[in-house]
Amino acid sequence: MSIALVRYSASSGPAWGVLHDGAVLPLPSEYVSTADVLTDGVKAARDLVVDAAADRIELQGLHLLPPTPDARIYCQGANYRSHMLESGMDPDRAFNMLFTKSTGSLSGPDDDIIRPAHVRLLDYEVELGIVLGKAITGPVTVTESELAEYVGAFVVANDVSARDVQLPQGQWYKGKSYRTFCPVGPYLCVPDPGEVARWRDLRLTLTVNGTVRQDAFAGDMAFGPAQTLTEFSQLEDFSVGDLLLTGTPGGVALQPPPALVQRVAGLLPDARRWELFVKGQTRSSAYLQPGDRVEASIRTDDGALDLGTQHTVVR
């Protein structure tokens, strides 16, 4: 059975605990890194949940911290077929789009999302995060049967994006890496090895002010985690605790202009074309505005795997 590990702010500094019956049971040791908690911490957590005398802290009122404090963030773009289709892409002819976000973009599951003053097109992307449980130091071939060796935990993430930086400037890293642009948590869902294969059954949902914007199963991915780790291993080393964001379903605020408009715009100079793009996108009410409340959750419909829910407000 999976367990949920939370990282929270205590009087002595950041602390870890395991969620049990709606309360947090503090882990007996300090863990500096996510890698530490995914090894020794998991064993301690499993012992705690069967200890009737374990100390308990009410979850409500705790300030939850990002549970991947030292993670490097690796990402997939346009990885869900529904998102490819709404973006005007052919899912059957797409490539696995790989990029990174800054560690400075990490924030907690209940922290505010801060929109920079120059950003007008602020978008959301609920994503299934995979926290690496096994280091990768060279090219590997990860099969579906071996995936459980590499999954240390599942986690909810929101790949917040400034579309008017990302696209007109061609700056994916910059447009997705401002401070607070990667809320992660509320906790690490550490599955049993046999549960990892259920990643396709995880339902990703995101609402803005109570209205559902995204709702899809992870099984809609074009490139699954095993395939992506295999491809990424040709490019990067991964440490235990690093974070892979696996793409977002359809329903984001960004919607491409009609094909005819795109053809006409293609005849214009780049500066004018992108000026018109931004102007057209600002007419959409779907982009995030100050005061908007965003909730993002991931779980299986039967509740066997539950990654929890983020509650963030745009400022």
How would you describe this structure to a colleague?
The protein is an alpha+beta fold and 315 residues long. It is 19% helix and 29% strand. It has 8 helices and 18 strands. The strands form 5 sheets. It has a 5-stranded antiparallel β-sheet with strand order 4-3-2-1-13, with helices on one face. The chain has a 5-stranded mixed β-sheet with strand order 6-5-16-9-10. A hairpin with a 2-residue loop joins strand 2 and strand 3. The chain is globular and about 70 Å long.
Layout of strands and helices, then pairs:
Elements: E1 3-10, E2 13-20, E3 23-26, H1 34-48, E4 57-58, E5 73-77, H2 81-86, E6 97-101, E7 106-107, E8 122-123, E9 126-132, H3 147-150, E10 151-158, E11 161-162, H4 163-166, H5 172-175, E12 182-183, E13 188-190, E14 202-208, E15 211-217, H6 225-232, E16 243-245, H7 259-265, H8 270-281, E17 293-300, E18 306-313
Parallel strand pairs: 5-16, 7-12
Antiparallel strand pairs: 1-2, 1-13, 2-3, 3-4, 5-6, 8-11, 9-10, 9-16, 14-15, 14-17, 17-18
Question: What labels describe this entry?
Answer:
five-stranded mixed beta sheet; five-stranded antiparallel beta sheet; 8 helices; 315 residues; alpha+beta
Structural class determined from secondary elements: alpha+beta
- Give the radius of gyration: 20 Å
Return the string of H and E elements: EEEHEEHEEEEHEEHHEEEEHEHHEE
Strand order of the largest sheet: 4-3-2-1-13
Helix content: 10-25%
Average pLDDT reading = 94
Low-confidence runs of at least 5 consecutive residues: none
How many H/I helical runs?
8
How many beta strands in the DSSP annotation? 18
Major sheet size, sense and barrel closure: 5 strands, antiparallel
Shape: globular
Q: Give the percentage of residues in beta strands.
A: 25-35%
